[in-house]
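Lecture 7 notes: from sequence to structure.
We start with the chain below.
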Amino acid sequence: MSTATITPTHLGTPLCRTQLPLTKSPIMAAANSRTAKDVIAALNLAPHPEKGYFVETYRDAAQTTAADSDKPRASSTYIYYLLEGESGLSHWHRVLDAVEVWHYYAGAPLQLSLSWDDGKPVRDVVLGADIWAGHRPQVIIERGEWQHAQSLGDWTLVGCSVAPGFEFEGFEMAEPGWEPKGSEKK
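Predicted structure tokens for the same chain:
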């Protein structure tokens, strides 16, 4: 009787201790040698109202309704979103009627600042590839949670998934200069 050895995999590639860290892989090195303008052109990104650049990549044909509305909308939506370094600090904003999930794709890590505007300190999470340095490749933002983001380098490319699908009617951008209770000026 023989026994099979099960090797854990990620995206079809066996995981092993000798594997290069993701940030040093040839694919990541090639992506990170590009400029923000290169990525914007390659993905046909357009300016986004909260700063940065985006393109909607998918809007689900399946329809649903948000908890507080009977208006049909896509079950989910997906975008690419790029922020540039110092000039790319997004405005404080929130999605009132849907959950948003941020996914890291390429470039520098990105800092997401999150708040319920309840006087508790703002929670900072770094979205990036180096999980051993505390980065998270995915961050979930609950409906109604305030957020803003900044690339920690020249540029960062992320994806944002929203369910139920994103509609600008459920989006709120804070007034310029607004900070949530419990935050220090950034």
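Points to note: The two ends are 64 Å apart (CA to CA). Residues 21-64+73-173 form a domain with the Jelly Rolls fold (CATH 2.60.120.10).
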